Amino acid sequence: MAQDDPPEHEDQSTHWAEFRTDLAEDRTIMAMERTYAGWIRTAFAAIGIGLGFRAVFGDFEPPWLARAIATVFILAGGWLALAAARRADKTLSRLHAHELQGTRPPNFRLLSYCVAFGAVMLTAGLWILNDGSIASG
Q: Coil, helix or strand for 136?
């Protein structure tokens, strides 16, 4: 392999060292993107647990308790999505892609804001709707 060849002179050695460092930074960006995806999966899982809890224990006594527990999970999912975007922004502000064309921070924020907004709307729906169906007018 080319990078295993002995350098012809010192400048070539420095070039390969800088190139490997640049690739390490690109790998760090890709690792951050995978971590962000993990946070978003966890946010969706929390929202799903909240919905599942509400669906399974809908006839819970007192009736507001199932909604309250579901609300905690759903809002926690929204908070996780926002926290993931904040962490991704902080990490990407320190890193610069070299050989890689990564995802831009506004895409992370947009997805996270949509998940958080959906969580808030879902929570509002849990409390506004009458037993899971729209109250008759």
A: coil
Alpha-carbon distance of 91 to 102, in angstroms, equals 13
Tokens of 81: 């999505």
Greater confidence (135 vs 25) lies with 25
Q: pLDDT digits over 85-114, tens only?
A: 999 888 888 776 666 665 566 688 899 999
Helices 105-128 and 63-94: angle between axes, nearest 10 degrees: 170
Show the tokens assigned to 83.
């926290």
CA distance 91 to 97: 12
Peptide bond into 62 cis (omega under 30): yes
**Integer CA distances (angstroms), 96 to 39, 67, 85, 87, 91, in order:** 22, 44, 17, 16, 10
* Separation of alpha carbons 114 and 119, rounded Å: 9
Asked if pLDDT for residue 5 goes beyond 60, the answer is no
Single-letter amino acid code for the residue at 4: D
**56 bridge partner residues:** none
Report for 45-49, 53-57, 100-104, 128-132: range of highest mean pLDDT: 45-49
Query: If we measure between CA atoms, which residue out of 32, 33, 52 comes closest to residue 44?
Result: 52
